[in-house]
């Protein structure tokens, strides 16, 4: 018996030891897997080449395009000599640069072409995006007009907010020249595109011959040659999107290609391995070209080049409809559509029209919809930079090109001092982080839309995150990307282009504008000017009185703007001066001068502490520009040492309770004041377009046209053939002058009036109705029950073999059909509570507290997701019992509390803050509004 007891003890000891060892091994393996997922492939950094270099092209083989094809755009300033002389804008820049006016015009034409048609090889990235966004995003369908879609060329602007390129008609059937795709058809009375898509242009700008380009493939059982095309691509009929032959579309892929199934069969197109015959490239025009505010299109779906312009930003751009290609409008019953059941759609739906989270790809774990930047009065803006925009550049920051590196901008050499690395920088991004000079800021944009994706995508995990982010180095791009080299040669021309054309759109220059302004009470306008000088000009005027020496503004450590670790002291000096009676008196006198608005950028471009402006803090605490992060090379050393702002107040998305939040600084915590130029035409307001008009889900239903001829000429409605969605007239003046989604003058003025009154009276803004305690604005919430869904075809290859096993172990996430579905999250769920979850520490913080929070809350999150059950079919999402269950689980598991604990930015109210002017009398508010219409 005693021997048996000893054996039992030995066996028990062995069992416990073995179990412990297995646990250790499991934890080690799990830790290694997590570590391998987090660590970037640093051994590949700086060693990959782009397609152009791989094809042995050099920068001289990718020259800038010189054809004045778009000269009618941008107020026609680039058309040349009219009335015996060049436009004043060209003569001004010629004088500033010492160049001949024709040289300025030619440089501006090259810059205009680069802005509108140069994509820098990013068609590779956008094809990657189509294969890695779980079926949501597909630009090849965005440019299509297939009957299965809710949109096409005839309602593209009204439904998607995209600008149709003149000279095309909507597709009426599959295009045999483009592998059966339903693409816009070039009109026979339109001259050939000079950049690509026809033999002459393709010879002039020969494409990069890689992969299957130029080789035989198959279509409809016959052999055809996949074109090489042009390095500018060919036009799609959408401004800013260009079509490129897909080098992966080889003979094998072509035999699998079925255009009918591509549009109609989810089991076919929901496949990450599907090879499309074309890739779509994106130029800057996609997010920045829009209807001309002062000469709007007579028909928004059929604009002329003279009615569109490059600088106001895509103010009507619907991200949820573009980045979720198969979106459909609700029917007359207003019931949620199938796309609303996808949480990814709900994420995109948080973006108001005209806004986009530009860190969506290189995720910083913060959902940050921000307006498309307008580019106005660049000359005045450079003047501000030379005064208070000085930044110190070190290391790789110095690799950015500067004005003196190019002959056309060499006269602007004073904006960069090579001896000490000081750069006078315009700050374009909302947080003022881009601070290495104008050309560096322009070049970074091209990386952010996919240029040199071969290298860029190594430095983060696109869309999802979870990999340690590292900087993409300018020297690596200069060495290994011919597309980058070509872009660098073009950005000086783009700078000239905007110096010439980036001018104000004044109401007085619009049809009927002078009469409207003349009808205003001029005494009221004068009073509004004084109110502006006293209450607004401190942040929103580049013309200001000089501060007396005793205030210390611009003196000593604050010379040149004071950027760096001492910036808060410099800001406080400035703000003390700007709030003084002396400043207000002198400012009123300056505002009374006849030329006050001439060359006034209507912003001081200083970085304003978030604790002062108190708008949503998430944009101010974005981290992509921090030291060691993705845009490290494009932010100055002085930006990276900015001090922390003071605390701000944030609100819980369920209880509404107020709590303090402290930004850690090192660049975070500031916003630049937006310019008020053309304020009458740029509503809604705030950096995220959250103030001006409510955007309920049941937005106007802009369905496809079914009758020929310009839409809206009869003012009637018709039904489309793909869902019976009534359409809306597309003519300007609009049938409804209060429709905020039309770019007509009356509509812009209506949106201005609504928006500016909400700015001045915060109590009238949209308020959240779901919190227990009132909060000072609204919170992004889901419009319907929704799940995070990954179709079978997009499930990672590493998981697919185990789908059956996983569906038995965790049926609440892994489905029998091989797909993955988490949820459902109930209607009204705070979107940012989930998507702002911080998965990794920032580069400047201690890692352990972040991981500890994840480890502590991980089991509770898994338990909550398991209880939600993964009931994500359309029938289940519509089931009242499922809806009730999801609400109960979210409430009783404390899911949202856990997510708030893990949030990188727990500021969920998106339209609060900027209460300046709220204490004015109603008479002064009305006077100020009258004055602001002049801007």
Describe the strand arrangement of the main beta sheet, using strand numbers.
5-6-7
| CA-based gyration radius | 28 Å
User: Number of DSSP helices?
Assistant: 33
**Helical content (DSSP H or I, runs of 4+):** 25-40%
Entry keywords:
three-stranded antiparallel beta sheet; 935 residues; 33 helices; globular; mainly alpha; 33% helix
Would you mind describing this structure in some detail?
It is globular and about 105 Å long. The longest helix has 37 residues. Helix 21 packs across helix 33. It is 33% helix and 7% strand. The chain has 33 helices and 20 strands. It has a 3-stranded antiparallel beta sheet. About 2% of the residues have low confidence. The chain starts with a helix and ends with a helix. The chain has 935 residues and is mainly alpha-helical.
Outline:
It is built from 33 helices and 20 strands. It is mainly alpha-helical and about 950 residues long.
Topology:
Blueprint: H1 2-38, H2 51-54, H3 88-97, H4 101-117, H5 123-131, H6 139-142, H7 156-160, E1 168-169, E2 185-186, H8 199-204, E3 216-219, E4 222-225, E5 234-235, E6 241-245, H9 251-256, H10 259-264, H11 266-269, E7 278-282, H12 285-288, E8 290-291, E9 308-309, H13 319-322, H14 343-349, E10 355-356, E11 370-371, H15 378-388, E12 390-392, E13 416-417, E14 422-424, H16 438-448, H17 453-456, H18 474-480, H19 482-501, H20 513-518, H21 522-535, H22 537-540, H23 567-578, H24 581-591, E15 608-609, H25 610-613, E16 648-651, E17 658-661, E18 670-671, H26 745-760, E19 786-790, H27 803-809, E20 820-825, H28 831-835, H29 847-868, H30 874-877, H31 880-892, H32 895-901, H33 922-932
Antiparallel strand pairs: 1-2, 3-4, 5-6, 6-7, 8-9, 10-11, 12-14, 13-14, 15-18, 16-17, 19-20
Helix pairs in contact: 3-4, 3-19, 4-19, 16-19, 21-24, 21-33, 29-32
């Amino acid at each position: 018996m005693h021997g048996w007891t000893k054996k039992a003890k030995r066996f028990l000891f062995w069992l416990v030891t073995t179990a412990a060892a297995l646990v250790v091994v499991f934890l080690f393996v799990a830790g290694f897997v997590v570590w391998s997922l987090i660590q970037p492939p640093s051994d590949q950094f700086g060693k990959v080449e782009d397609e152009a270099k791989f094809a042995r092209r050099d920068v001289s083989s990718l020259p800038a395009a010189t054809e004045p094809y778009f000269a009618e755009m941008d107020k026609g300033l680039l058309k040349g000599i009219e009335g015996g002389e060049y436009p004043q804008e060209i003569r001004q820049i010629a004088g500033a640069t010492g160049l001949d006016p024709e040289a300025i015009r030619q440089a501006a034409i090259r810059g205009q072409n680069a802005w509108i048609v140069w994509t820098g090889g990013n068609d590779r990235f956008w094809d990657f995006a189509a294969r890695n966004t779980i079926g949501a995003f597909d630009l090849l369908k965005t440019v299509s007009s297939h009957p299965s879609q809710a949109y096409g060329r005839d309602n593209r602007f009204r439904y998607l907010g995209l600008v149709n390129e003149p000279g095309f008609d909507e597709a009426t059937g599959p295009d045999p020249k483009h592998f059966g795709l339903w693409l816009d058809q070039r009109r026979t009375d339109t001259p050939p595109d000079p950049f690509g898509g026809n033999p002459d242009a393709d010879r002039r700008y020969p494409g990069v011959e890689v992969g299957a380009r130029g080789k035989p493939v198959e279509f409809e059982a016959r052999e055809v040659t996949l074109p090489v095309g042009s390095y500018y691509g060919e036009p799609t009929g959408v401004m800013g999107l260009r079509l490129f032959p897909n080098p992966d579309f080889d003979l094998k892929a072509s035999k699998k290609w079925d255009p009918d199934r591509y549009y109609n069969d989810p089991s076919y197109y929901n496949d990450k391995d599907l090879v499309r015959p074309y890739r779509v490239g994106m130029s800057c025009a996609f997010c920045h070209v829009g209807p001309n505010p002062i000469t709007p299109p007579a028909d928004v779906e059929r604009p002329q080049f003279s009615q569109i312009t490059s600088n106001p930003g895509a103010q009507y751009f619907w991200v949820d409809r573009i980045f979720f290609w198969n979106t459909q409008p609700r029917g007359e019953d207003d019931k949620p559509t199938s796309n609303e059941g996808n949480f990814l759609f709900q994420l995109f739906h948080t973006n108001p029209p005209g806004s986009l989270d530009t860190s969506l790809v290189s995720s910083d774990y913060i959902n940050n919809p921000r307006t498309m930047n307008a580019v106005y009065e660049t000359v005045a803006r450079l003047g501000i930079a030379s005064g208070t925009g000085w930044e110190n550049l070190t290391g790789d920051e110095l690799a950015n090109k500067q004005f003196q590196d190019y002959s056309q901008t060499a006269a602007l050499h004073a904006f960069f001092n090579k001896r000490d690395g000081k750069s006078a920088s315009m700050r374009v991004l909302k947080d003022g982080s881009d601070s290495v000079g104008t050309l560096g800021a322009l070049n970074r944009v091209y990386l952010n839309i996919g240029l040199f994706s071969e290298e860029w995508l190594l430095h983060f995990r696109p869309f999802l995150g979870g990999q340690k982010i590292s900087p993409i180095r300018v020297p690596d791009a200069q060495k290994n990307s011919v597309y980058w080299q070509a872009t660098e040669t073009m950005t000086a021309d783009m700078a000239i282009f905007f110096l010439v054309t980036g001018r104000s759109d004044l109401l007085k220059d619009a049809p009927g504008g002078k009469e409207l302004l003349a009808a205003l009470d001029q005494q009221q306008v004068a009073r509004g000017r004084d109110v502006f000088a006293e209450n607004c000009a401190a942040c929103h005027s580049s013309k200001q009185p000089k501060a007396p020496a005793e205030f210390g503004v611009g003196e000593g450590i604050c010379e040149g703007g004071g950027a760096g670790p001492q910036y808060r002291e410099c800001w406080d000096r400035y703000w003390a001066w700007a709030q003084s009676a002396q400043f207000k008196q002198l400012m009123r006198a300056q505002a009374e001068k006849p030329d006050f608005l001439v060359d006034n950028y209507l912003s001081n471009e200083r970085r304003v502490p978030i604790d002062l402006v108190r708008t949503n803090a998430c944009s101010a605490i974005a981290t992509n520009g921090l030291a060691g992060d993705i845009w490290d090379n494009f932010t100055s050393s002085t930006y990276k040492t900015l001090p922390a702002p003071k605390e701000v107040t944030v609100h819980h998305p369920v209880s509404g309770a107020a709590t303090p939040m402290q930004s850690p600084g090192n660049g975070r915590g500031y916003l630049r004041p937006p310019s008020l130029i053309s304020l009458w035409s740029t509503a809604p307001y705030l950096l995220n377009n959250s103030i001006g008009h409510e955007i309920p889900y049941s937005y106007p239903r802009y369905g496809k046209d079914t009758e020929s001829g310009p839409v809206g000429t009869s003012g009637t409605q018709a039904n489309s053939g793909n869902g019976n969605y009534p359409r809306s007239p597309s003519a300007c003046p609009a049938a409804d002058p209060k429709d905020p989604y039309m770019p007509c003058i009356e509509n812009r003025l209506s949106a201005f009036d609504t928006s500016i009154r909400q700015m001045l009276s915060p109590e009238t803004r949209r308020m959240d109705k779901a919190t227990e305690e009132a909060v000072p604005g609204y919170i992004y919430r889901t419009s319907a029950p929704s799940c995070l869904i990954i179709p079978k075809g997009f499930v990672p290859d590493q998981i697919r073999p185990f789908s059956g096993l996983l569906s038995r172990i965790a049926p609440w996430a892994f489905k029998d059909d091989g797909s993955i579905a988490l949820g459902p999250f109930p209607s009204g769920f705070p979107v940012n509570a989930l998507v702002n979850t911080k998965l990794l520490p920032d580069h400047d913080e201690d890692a352990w507290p972040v991981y500890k929070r994840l480890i502590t809350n991980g089991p509770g999150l898994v338990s909550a997701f398991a209880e939600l059950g993964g009931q994500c079919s359309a029938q289940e999402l519509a089931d009242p019992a499922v809806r009730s269950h999801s609400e109960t689980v979210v409430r009783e598991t404390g899911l949202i509390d856990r997510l708030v604990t893990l949030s990188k930015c727990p500021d969920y109210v998106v339209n609060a803050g900027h209460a300046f002017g709220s204490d004015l009398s109603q008479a002064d508010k009305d006077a100020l509004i009258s004055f602001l219409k002049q801007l």
